[in-house]
Write a structure and sequence with these properties.
Length: about 375
């Protein structure tokens, strides 16, 4: 059953990917004059670049070298180009429809339509390149987002807690050792009491991570109480047991549907990712079952990768929930879609007596580009009263 679910999922993804690429391809081809040799170059170039992402992802399962890495990098950038070429193609088609019915194009366009199409094509290419470059720079420069919250002290002896949070590192071919070292430096500069990683630490396959020995960098994360993580959907996509073992072998405690009592002062609860039943025959525990045996007269912090069903935290007396997953859309205008899907797509909100923070993530999946949100490391100072 899991195989058929995966087959249906991948078939839908490939159908959408192929259809969007074909639409962009046709619109670009129509803008190039038929008598020019550039049409032939365009066809060859487009087919090759459209195949790079999937070729790279498949080949890196069998070999890891400069060639497969190059394919993955080119293909990942192409995902961002696809989105913006698609949006421009739709925009121009809408304008053409309006012109057909309302005649909105001025005479200098209608009289020089062939030249206008070429100029439009070159302009769109230039604009999209500029957007992607901006987004890549944004992707490479995560901010440190600091803020304070106040929580009930209850029976805890703590007066404050300095938390460093980072979700969605997506370590792998795109986010490698250099980015990870930058991440470790930023986190360690916060002198946090505890480091929390709410899922998607790895992109998918562990091959590039093992090849570059990223575990040595993970071991350098420092805090008073240690480094804790939960599984995300990408841990399950790449093989959850291997991912968890690699984290635990390199200094990260992975909390899987259980609660940990820390310094006799507060509880840290970690839930398995919501996608567990899609990739395994297991089900994640109900939050009420995990929480029933703990002392609710102490502060409770919950890590849950996907910010679905936020009411469950409130109903079970959780004081602070930390999530990721959304990337807040990552690419504009997808942030508007995630804002419609999730109760909180990004940022801090207090609902009832429960505090929530959904991180946009330190990196992201697919294109190393951010135009709809910022990459971030989050620093939360909890003041207990």
């Amino acid at each position: 059953m899991k195989f058929w679910n995966f087959l249906i999922f991948i078939s839908i993804v490939l159908l959408v990917y192929g259809s969007v690429n074909y639409y962009i391809f046709l619109r670009g081809l129509q803008a190039i004059p038929k008598e020019t040799i550039f049409r032939n170059y365009y066809v060859i170039f487009f087919i090759l670049i459209a195949l790079t992402f999937w070729a790279g992802r498949i080949l890196e399962n069998y070999m890891l070298n400069w060639f497969t890495e190059t394919l993955v990098w080119i293909g990942s950038f192409w995902l961002a180009f696809i989105l913006y070429f698609f949006l421009f193609a739709v925009l121009f088609d809408l304008l053409r429809i309006l012109n057909h019915f309302l005649g909105i194009f001025p005479s200098f366009i209608t009289e020089n339509y062939a030249k206008v199409k070429v100029v439009s094509l070159l302009s769109v290419i230039g604009i999209v390149i500029a957007i992607v470059i901006y987004g890549h720079i944004n992707f490479l420069n995560p901010r440190i987002h600091k803020f304070d919250i106040t929580m009930p002290k209850k029976d805890s002896q703590l007066n404050s807690l300095n938390i460093a949070v980072a979700s969605d590192l997506h370590l792998g071919t795109i986010v490698g050792k250099k980015r990870l070292d930058d991440f470790v430096e930023k986190v360690n500069s916060l002198n946090a009491d505890i480091v929390l990683l709410p899922g998607d630490i790895f992109d998918e396959d562990l091959g590039p991570i093992i090849k570059d020995n990223l575990g040595d960098s993970l071991k350098l994360l420092k805090s008073k109480y240690g480094v804790y993580a939960v599984t995300g959907n990408h841990e399950f996509i790449g093989g959850v047991n291997a991912a968890v073992k690699y984290m635990e072998d390199n200094g990260i405690t992975v909390i899987r549907d259980t609660a940990i009592f820390i310094d006799s002062a507060f509880y840290l609860i970690g839930r398995e990712d919501l996608s567990i039943n899609r990739f395994t025959d297991d089900q994640r525990k109900d939050l009420s079952k995990i929480i029933e045996a703990i002392n609710k007269n102490l502060p409770i912090i919950l890590l849950d990768h996907q910010p679905h069903n936020l009411h469950l935290a409130r109903e079970n007396g959780v004081d602070l929930q930390l999530s990721g997953h959304t990337h807040h859309g990552q690419l504009w205008p997808l942030n508007y879609i995630t804002s419609m899907i999730y109760e909180i797509s990004w940022g801090y909100e207090k609902i009832g007596s429960t505090h929530y923070y959904v991180s946009s993530g330190f990196a992201g999946w697919g294109p190393p580009v951010r135009t709809g949100s910022r990459t971030e490391v989050v620093n939360i100072i909890v003041n207990f009263e």
